[in-house]
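If your schedule permits, I should be very grateful for your opinion on a structural question. I have a record of one protein: its chain in single-letter code and its fold written as discrete structure tokens. Kindly check, if you would, that the fold set down in the tokens agrees with what the sequence suggests. I remain grateful for any guidance, and I place the record below:

***
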Amino acid sequence: MPVKKKAAKSARGKKSPYFNRELSWLAFNRRVLDLARSEGQPLLERLKFLSIVASNLDEFFEIRVAGLAQLVESGVTETGIDGLGPKEQLRRIHSIAGSLVRDQYVCWRDQLVPQMKQQGIVFKNKAELTRTERKWLEGYFEEQVYPVLTPLAIDPAHPFPQLANKSLNILLRLRDSSARQSDAVMAVIPVPRILPRVVRVGGGRGDQQVYLFLSDLIKMFVGRLFPGYRVRGAWAFRITRNSDLYIDEEEVENLLKTIEEELHKMRKGDPVRLEIEEDVHEEDLSQMLHAIDLGKEYVYRINGPINLMRLMSVYGLIDRPDLKDKPFQPYTPPALASPGELFHNIRKQDALLHHPYDSFGPVVDFLNAAADDPQVFAIKQTLYRTSGDSPIISALKRASQNGKQVTALIELKARFDELNNIQWARELQETGVHVVYGLVGLKTHCKTCLVVRREGEGLRRYCHLGTGNYNPKTARIYTDLSYFTAREELTNEVADLFNTLTGFSRTPDFKHLLVAPFNLYGSIIRLIKRETRNAKAGKPARIIVKTNSLIVKETIDELYAASKAGVKVDCIVRGICGLVPGVPGLSENISVRSIVGRYLEHSRVYYFENHGGEPDLYIGSADWMPRNFFRRIECLFPLRDPNLRKDVIENILPIYLKDTTATALRSNGAYQPVSRAKEDQRVSAHDIFMAQAEERRQRDVVLPTEAQAQPQPD
């Protein structure tokens, strides 16, 4: 079901020409929920989408709601571009989020649970367990759970405990069983994170997989932790806390140590949400809210298991390929298939990979080849996020051990990956890698790698530029673009970019790259204005924007001006969009669509027609948000190779614009399915790109390329 919301209004009641950022994000999460509710998706994929909805909401409350709550507490009344102040935004957020959570649990209870039961995957509650299953669970509780639980009494001598952010807990109401009349007392049981939140139950029928949530298991046997007391009520709950980092980089001497300290404090941040089972007694709920200093508007009563994000583990536990997406094997272009020939082939011709349809393997091979090649003198690498067992980190450490000069620019403030990145920084430093943390006040978000290699009498640079993180795991589920080149005009500027990040340069001069916060924003505005001038002069004009978020007022205003001049503007915006399309006299020439499906759309591509010249085509790491333009180091790069340009302009972008699984944003804020020529005509960009990759694989098997048949050593 598409989400409907009223267009934002200003304080005077007039419709605003901008959508609210937070409400737009909630609309995106609603589109993810729609996939969980869709009968057209494989059953266990729907379970995964439901888990993603919960994970997304966690981050939304930890960061966005927490920030708004602080503004309200500080008395800030300033409105955003949509005319809404912090207090009104919070009011609308609670209303929409409440509806979203209710629908989330309706999907779980009324759709997924019954349908999984039909497939032999059974989620039970206490009343549904057989005697044999209960006996097995009793043994499991005694052996695996009971020894690690610590009951915490709440009384004048024991105040309400400081509970960790997003941790599972059980609230209890107890009475003294030895007294006929006694006052009820409260207790809390924090559930250690080491315990799996979903338990596969043994002792059942062989044709069924039976599961029970850990919170239900603990409630079944919780009385054993309070001998002499009767349990009058038990409710699972968890508290979400403010998880934003507050660091004045100019005032700290050791950024790494300061972030570690802040992360420790963050676990005890101010509460911004309480999720608790819906049948909790009002008296107990009131006492808890008073103890944690939280208003009732931040309470979400749950009819179902607390934290549906834990369903992601169930997806991995169940070996039912028939209930999941068909596996897909990424394609590796022949020119990038042989690590020993990578530098030769990149020098010969630029290469572009479209992940996850094209393998991320060549990116890893590029770094491994650089680490082991005796002709490579230096490697420079940015790291925003990477995987837990990162082959990228391994390659950088090995390169340093092999005597190469290795510089890794690690972004310590990558949200929710701070601890991982601190660990990588220390590991790299121990092997001799020069680790730096970028420019004060700016996050380093660009995806760049530079390799310097001796060839003949001189040095040649090779670089990889991309839209996604150096993370082989997310490269299998995020759509991103990876670009390899040895073009001097680009590699020279990538070298300048690294020098800017590691040294001092207030005004670096980039002529080919668009780098934030230096020339990116101004260049984008200039490119939009040029299309506007061309349209006013009666020339063809076109803009295509593929991004994750579009929320900068000045950029939106320029797109409105372009639309009024007659420029056709197509926006493919996965998530947040502040632009209101289809408004007569303002944005009737602008369309906005969102594609949410098997893969997470993450690539950023920007096309400007440039009538009379070659179209401008830029790819890179930057969304169109204030943080990307002004508070981060971002990099967009131009595609120069004619064949690669043709693929993006004539194949990739048109397929996205023909996708009928997409939803179109209307001027009233509703996302509705895009129109189809025929009701049964379904076009999925993800399916088409997978099919194209398979066609290339089959073609390579039948007709080996010249590069495969006649490899040429350096």
